[in-house]
Amino acid sequence: MYFMPKLTVQGVGEFDVRAGKRLVKALIEDAGTDQLHACGGQARCTTCRVKFVEGEPKNITEAEKETLKVREVKESGVRLSCQIACDHDMTVELISRLEGSGRKDQGSPVADEIEPAPEWTTR
């Protein structure tokens, strides 16, 4: 029996996702949303931002922490979905979508594993 974390996307629904799947990929592939990811999940931009309602991970990658700092993203609960693995139940609000962005597409392809190789720390 496999553990399937539950991803709840406000205004969209609840989805069982494969444990360890990158949140950005779960939002697109499982929840069918138009979540942005301009840099292809490399933690170089902030287009894949989501706001955690419940279940925000305590750990953060050094890459995410640095990008949030440089881009001056300080709002509580706002994280980069490309740097988070679905390893527990979580509820998120979409705040960075293709619709209304003026972009031609959601972004570059996203690898299955977190990139760059994660160095974990705390916020």
From TrEMBL:
Flavoprotein recorded as keyword: yes
InterPro entries (alphabetical): 2Fe-2S_ferredoxin-like_sf, 2Fe-2S_ferredoxin-type, Beta-grasp_dom_sf
Database matches in Gene3D superfamilies: 3.10.20.30
Span list, region Disordered: 99-123
Keyword Ubl conjugation: no
Pfam families (UniProt xref): Fer2
Residue intervals of the 2Fe-2S ferredoxin-type domain: 5-98
PANTHER family linked to this entry: NA(+)-TRANSLOCATING NADH-QUINONE REDUCTASE SUBUNIT, NAD(P)H-FLAVIN REDUCTASE
Protein name from the UniProt record: Ferredoxin
Organism in which the protein naturally occurs: Rhodopirellula maiorica SM1
Keywords: FAD, Flavoprotein
Molecular functions (GO terms): iron-sulfur cluster binding
